[in-house]
Amino acid sequence: MIVKAIAIIVLAYLIGAIPSGLIVVKIANGKDVRMIESGRTGGTNAMRAAGWFAGVMTGALDIVKGVSSGWIVSWIMPGNAWMQVLAALFVIIGHNYSIFLLERDASGRVCLRGGAGGASCFGGAIALYPLSGLIIFPLSAAIFIFVGYASLTTMSVAFLATVIFIVRAITGASPWAYVVYGVGAQVLLIWALRPNIMRLMNGTERLVGLRARLKKVRLERKPLESIKENS
């Protein structure tokens, strides 16, 4: 059993570590997504580096990585709730800290690059309870569009998953182990997004979605309004 558990964890980590965004952006326009904006390899940064299609493709592939955690466990240790949770969490860890993106930072320290884990977290929630996607996706999309912060959208995925699994555990529909997945995923996402949280606190986090569009329109109108006032 120990050997099987180790095999699941290693496979889940390695699948999570596949840098989807790096591959998609490199194919799309030859750029290195790690050199763009946040330097992360997730869907949001892939979108900045190579457009909406690259962002969507990266997000979809990262979701599949999370979903694959369920396939791994059903293949090696079917029906083991705790291994399902561990596999899903290790996919996120692999995504955020990829062994395939090993490098040295500016101070010479060895580090592992990756994403923030939102899409992989979403995929992991689907692996544990497929219908959770029908709740998490529209609510997270609404946060992205109307609240306008990609980092909050990412963190909302784990939060919503936790709420869903708490409700299901209380009603006896799923094991309490799944709640541990939601909480663990939330910790991993918050840790990965520490710089974004600091920017949220001081009001400098970059806007996305509808709020970003409205802000752009307001900025474009200001010069025209000033010209009218001076004419």
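the 2nd protein, sequnce then structure:
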Amino acid sequence: MANSSKKGGSKKGNKSKGRSKTNKRVQSKSKISSLFIILSILGVIGAIILLIIWLPPPGGRSPSIRPPFEERRPLPPPPKVTPKPLPPTIQKPKVAIIIDDLGYNRDIDDAFLHLHAPLSFAFLPKAPYTKFLANEAHKIGGHDILVHIPMEPINPAINTGPGELLTNMDLDTLLEVLKEDISEVPWAIGANNHMGSKFTTDKKVMTWVLEELKRRGMFFIDSRTTAMSIAYNIAKELGVPTAKRDVFLDRNPNPIAIRKELKRLVKIAKEKGYAIAIGHPFLVTWKILYRELPWLEKQVKIVPVHELVS
């Protein structure tokens, strides 16, 4: 009996195992069928897309070259632009500063020579340091060198120094003194008058002086030690390059007065485009120029005086 019951249980177990295997096969077939259906659908969709891409567009064949994204039309010519005229360069007015009476004080004169500006220097003939300092100015470069010609003043008591030209001189005597004065100042390219309130009002003697300067190719600056001077006008008539002083920087040699004259110099230069100042080898004048030259150069262009003659 026990054996028969074992056999019966064994048969039942075999049947349940068979059913399990059958169910797994059915499930596996079902999954394969679903996957096939999905792949078929995807294939159909892909085929439709390919047909859309490959079919020629309505009305003609597909182009052999893909057209660009933008239509290639010839570019229009660039618009004609009329350049705006540049604003005119604003030029600073020009100023020349002549330092007169050089040649007697080597130290202070040398200090003026070494100021960082193209000053012009007028040397007295026969002064002890004139030749040395004129040569020094020439070596430094950028400076005009002038003969500061002593000329007769109205007041006979005033001593103008050696080499003075007088109104009562005859032509030969005057030219002899003048030529000697010029020879005393090496590298001189022009001249101006030292004193001369009487001499510069005399047409005859001024004509003699200016004709000699013209013969040598030199210019003349009228220091205008008197309002009655005719030196500038005669120089113009004779065709001698010339100009005249506008400002004395240190007629009153104190700092306030010199600064005031510098401002007046700038004002005149801005009004007429240029101006000429004359100063003297005073320590106070050197100090003011040393301090004020940076300010002055912002207002005007400092030039050698030959640039202002005409």
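The longest strand covers residues 94-102. Confidence is low (pLDDT under 50) at residues 1-12, 57-76.
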